[in-house]
Each structure stands twice: as C-alpha cells, then as structure tokens.
C-alpha cells in the first residue's frame, strides 16, 4: 500500500489499475494451473495469492523507478530517508498491533468454526460472510483512497479550505 499511496498522492492511478487488472488475469491462470493441473489444492492457491501480491508490488515499484512521471519525485534511497525512523516506528506501532489483531481474529474464527458440529457447513457459511464483509470494506477503502488523493492534492496546491471541503463532498 505505501507504493500505491505514493502514486495516488500524485494523481497517478491508471498504472495501478492496469497492473492490478493484468495481475488478476495472471492470478486466475496460475490458480487454475496450481489447483487443478498440478493438484496442489489449497496450498497452491495460497502460494499463487502471495505471488500475485508480490507481482503488484514489484510492478508498481518498477513503474516508479522507470517512468518519466516519477523521475522528479523519487531520486532513489538516501540516508536522509531513514532519519525519522524512530518516531515513525512509535507512531506506527499501534497500527501494526491493530492489523495483527485483525488478521489473528479472522484466523481464530476459522479455527473455531472448524471445531463446530458440522465443520464443512460452518466454514462454508463463514467464507460467505467473510466475503460479504470484504466487499463492504472495499467500499470504505475506495472512499479512503479517493479522499486521501483529493486532500493531499489540495494541500499540496496550498488550498487547505478546498481540502476540508473535499472531505465533506467525498
């Protein structure tokens, strides 16, 4: 997500959309091969999912490094980039704990559902519910991205009143 936020803050959203779309098709193909042709089942699907996430990260990083649009905004790594890490870690520790607890919560719920009387039905029902919850959260994440981009662009242009107004509009 940091690479996406870097691009979004500059109103560069099309490359992420193209990369995600291309990765979706690669993911579908590789999932089919891993699950059905190689017979890897759930392990194959999990490996392909992880690989797909890395494709997106690497492709977006390559876009930043190689594109003309990002040449002036990212000059590469420097020692100065790491100067504020202690204070950054202090600020991000609570967020990291929250994300870990969220992931662990879902994993614990899956394990507990597997202990129920009819685990196959329970896990199928849980999967449907988690998918619906994921879709609902995607709506809020989409608004989050739109608001972040709009506010950062307005603040970057020196328009704090427009930034506050754009939060109300979006």
Protein model, in words:
- It is a single chain.
- The chain has 170 residues and is an all-alpha fold.
- The protein folds into two domains: 74 residues, no CATH class; 74 residues, no CATH class.
- It is 79% helix and 0% strand.
- Helix 2 runs antiparallel to helix 3 and helix 5 packs antiparallel against helix 6.
- The radius of gyration is 20 Å and the shape is globular.
Unreliable spans are none
Distance between the termini: 21 Å
Estimate percent helicity.
over 70%
What's the main sheet like? none
Gyration radius (Cα, Å) is 20 Å
Walk me through the topology.
Elements: H1 2-8, H2 14-37, H3 41-66, H4 85-114, H5 119-156, H6 160-169
List keywords for this structure.
Protein TRANSPARENT TESTA 12, 6 helices, 170 residues, mainly alpha, membrane
Offer a quick outline of the entry:
The chain has 170 residues and is mainly alpha-helical. 79% of the residues lie in helices and 0% in strands. It has helices spanning 2-8, 14-37, 41-66, 85-114, 119-156, 160-169.
């Amino acid at each position: 997500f940091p690479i996406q936020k870097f691009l979004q803050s500059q109103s560069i959203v099309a490359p992420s959309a193209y990369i995600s779309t291309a990765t979706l098709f690669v993911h579908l193909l590789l999932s089919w091969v891993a699950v059905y042709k190689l017979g890897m089942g759930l392990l194959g699907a999990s490996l392909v999912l992880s690989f797909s996430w890395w494709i997106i990260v690497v492709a977006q990083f390559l876009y930043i490094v190689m594109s003309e649009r990002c040449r002036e905004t990212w000059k590469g790594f420097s020692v100065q980039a790491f100067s504020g890490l202690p204070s950054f870690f202090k600020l991000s520790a609570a967020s990291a704990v929250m994300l870990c607890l969220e992931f662990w919560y879902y994993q614990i719920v899956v394990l507990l559902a597997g202990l129920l009387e009819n685990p196959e039905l329970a896990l199928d029902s849980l999967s449907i519910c988690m998918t619906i919850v994921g879709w609902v959260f995607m709506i809020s994440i989409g608004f989050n991205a739109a608001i972040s981009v709009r506010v950062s662009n307005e603040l970057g242009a020196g328009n704090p009143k427009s930034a506050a107004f754009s939060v109300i509009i979006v």
